Amino acid sequence: MSEQMTAKVDVDLAQPSILSRRSPWRYLMLLAGLAVLVLLPYWIYPPVAMDILCWGLFAISVDLLLGFTGLLSFGHAAFWGGSAYCTGLIAITWGVPFPVAVIGGSVFAMLIAWPIGWLSVRRTGIYFAMVTLAFAQMIYFIANQLRDLTGGENGLQGIPRTFFGIDAVENDSFYFYYAGAALIVIGIAIAWRVVNSPFGRVLTAVRDNPARARALGYDVEVFKIKAFVISAGLAGLAGGVFAISHGFASLQELAWTTSGKVVLITVLGGIGTLWGGLVGAGVVVTLEDYLSSSGFEGIGLITGGIFVVIVLLFRHGIWGTARNALRRFVLDRRRQSRD
Amino acid sequence: MSEFIQYTLQGLAAGGFYALSALGLAVIFGVLGVVNFSHGACYMLGAVIAAVLLAELSLGFWVALVVVPVVMFGFGVLMERLLVQWLLALDPLYNFLLTFGLTLILVEAVKLRYGVSGLPYEIPAGLGGQVTVGSVNLSVYAIFACVFSVVVCIAVGLLMTRTRIGMIVRAATEDAGRTRALGINVGRWVTPVFGFGIALAGLAGVLAAPTRAITAEMGSNFIIILFAVVVIGGLGSILGAVVAGFLVGLVEAYGVAYAPAYAQIVIFVLMAAVILVRPSGLFGREEVA
């Protein structure tokens, strides 16, 4: 295993000061990101823009595990889809404002994630991926059985978009985008905070050297379970907004192809980059939207092909490649100015 | 009682498909350290090729039983040479993702070419009908499938334990570095072993063709059950793959018979129980974390 999936930062490529925390460039980049977030529904069809943000946060939740804890979950559809159903049921039954329903769905995702995580962290690496995949499939079958609740093959339809009686948000997907985006941004902020906290540092230690982390007195399994549950909560947040945005939740949300798609987005964006998830989601969602609207039927050929190509040739992903190039550029320039 | 015997036979027949495929998965994992996600798709390809052979070349079941594994062996060799080998030195998760991408491509390609409805395939002449033992009616084909897969599993077991090739493969599974140090060219065996594992999946597909709907999606659920099988059996263990394959087949058959709503779920509950009690699987060795 010469190259770990979760590539450690090259010593040579360690943070140059231009990218350090207090650098004004960082704020500029953050501002640019916010500008894109605000302008997105002007450029593309608002529901598609909403999809990008949902899949982006979903990918970020996977990256929290894969890139920062070293666990590849191939069963995150369980939390995305589980929350989609729960959010829908809450919204239909009680008619509460949709953020409340989404938070309820997210909590539900965390509740089912706890036992799954508790069992799954007993295995690591490739086994973890297989075990989470199998448990997610179990949730899929359960949802299929609970027809009265989930609508079985038909899915859960007619999820209302209640929002404090504000007509614009409830009926216009353009304004709904901003209300939904607020929830997604909160999710991203939580992910960022987790990664950049003492807790996040321990997760990285668990990823890089579990034996040493254990020797230092950290209960490795407990940290993994906590990371798993937090990640599931974020996936649930994304899935809940997705369900509200579309007005329905279907079994497709729980299928293993959904788990695979979000892993694809994460790897395409760049493992261990956090922000890469949003970029990957932008590419995959707009591509799928373009292909399906142009009547192309073999979407699996394209997504599968992308998967094969990035895994073979492009393992740092879009964000990772760009970041490494920027670091190299900055370091080279500094070296030249020193000489 | 007669029903119980029928369910047991059905379970053993289905278990045979799982055991054969899981065997292929286990052999590939043992020697290459690769978990082949496309194993379900290869099982599907085996069945589809058998159906195409019958429809377009009117080559029957018995020919398919020989031709399909050979074709799939070639497919596996190509796959290993063109794609899988480049990632062998990296984290095994990369090959897991690569074969996942390949699965999407294969399933979509078959769907585009042959549609979503099932391809027709009939139980071969001579294996149709039922035999009556006492008061129990047993399907002849289920008995055949069950016996055939047991025979293949035993043959592979003998190949692994009684021949020089098997010895090399087992040694490479145990410790590739040390095997190399003893003068064995381990690299030479990687490609044929991969092809062999894929061929076993194809063979399981041919066996399943007469009794199951042949569609592009037939491997999609199969692969997940297969993962449960190897987690239960212990991924490194060849015996574990076979025993767990039949066990899962039986559990599934009894589930379908006595609690149809929960048939699929029971398998995963079994897997959860195994992880809880013996995280490394029934026949697996302890994993050092």
TrEMBL record, chain A:
Signal peptide (residue range): none
Transmembrane segments: 27-45, 57-79, 91-114, 126-143, 175-195, 227-251, 263-287, 299-318
Bilayer topology annotation: Multi-pass membrane protein
Keyword line: Cell membrane, Membrane, Transmembrane, Transmembrane helix
GO CC list: plasma membrane
Protein's UniProt keywords contain Membrane: yes
Subcellular location: Cell membrane
Keyword field contains Signal: no
MF (Gene Ontology): branched-chain amino acid transmembrane transporter activity
Database matches in PANTHER family: ABC TRANSPORTER ATP-BINDING PROTEIN (PTHR30482:SF17), HIGH-AFFINITY BRANCHED-CHAIN AMINO ACID TRANSPORT SYSTEM PERMEASE (PTHR30482)
Name of the protein: Amino acid/amide ABC transporter membrane protein 2 (HAAT family)
UniProtKB/TrEMBL annotation, chain B:
Listed transmembrane segments: 12-35, 47-73, 93-110, 138-160, 189-210, 222-251, 257-277
InterPro entries the UniProt entry points to: ABC_transp_permease, BCAA_transport_permease
Swiss-Prot/TrEMBL keywords: Amino-acid transport, Cell membrane, Membrane, Transmembrane, Transmembrane helix, Transport
Main location (coarse class): membrane
Gene Ontology terms: cellular component: plasma membrane
BP GO terms, sorted: amino acid transport
Subcellular location: Cell membrane
Entries under Pfam families matching the protein: BPD_transp_2 (PF02653)
Membrane disposition: Multi-pass membrane protein
GO function terms (MF aspect): transmembrane transporter activity
Family per record: Belongs to the binding-protein-dependent transport system permease family. LivHM subfamily.
Record-given protein name: Amino acid/amide ABC transporter membrane protein 1 (HAAT family)
